[in-house]
Design brief:
- With 135 residues, the chain is of the alpha+beta class.
- Helix 3 links the parallel strand 1 and strand 2.
- It has five helices and four strands.
- Strands 2-1-3-4 form a four-stranded mixed beta sheet, covered by helices on one side.
Length: 135
């Protein structure tokens, strides 16, 4: 029974972007999400192989639905593409750097240059089409 509910325009991403206060739930305190250092992240992007940044969180239902599609894409494009799965909560500086405020979000980068960026759910054929367009 909720007595006070609020509609967050833009969701939690917009709330955090506005630097409003948040508290972690007891469930998320022991998160095992990887936090990238700037050096580690830069090393991934300096690779000659294109990199697909996949911004997501563990609590995002559409992100969880994208997992098997990203797994298939990773298998299909193993030699031609690297996928970095970036937890938005564990890497707030990266989400700010790439202006990601809605998830799932995807950015295709080659030679440190963003080639394509979009949010939402995609099918495996759609990802393949996007990659072929930017090869």
């Amino acid at each position: 029974d909720f007595k006070n509910t609020v509609d967050l325009a833009g969701g939690i991403g917009a709330w955090k972007k506005a630097k409003l206060p948040t508290r972690k739930s007891p469930v998320s305190k022991g998160s095992s999400a990887h936090t990238y250092t700037q050096e580690e992240f830069s090393a991934h992007l300096s690779s000659p192989t294109p990199v697909l940044l996949a911004f997501q969180t563990k609590w995002c239902a559409p992100c969880r639905k994208m997992k098997p599609i990203l797994d298939q894409l990773e298998d299909q494009e193993r030699e031609k593409l690297k996928i970095l799965r970036i937890d938005l909560d564990a890497n707030p500086s990266l989400s700010e750097q790439y202006k990601v405020d809605s998830i799932p979000a995807f950015i295709l980068i080659k030679n440190n240059t963003p080639l394509w960026q979009d949010t939402g759910s995609f099918t495996l054929p759609k990802f393949t089409q996007i990659l072929n367009t930017h090869r």
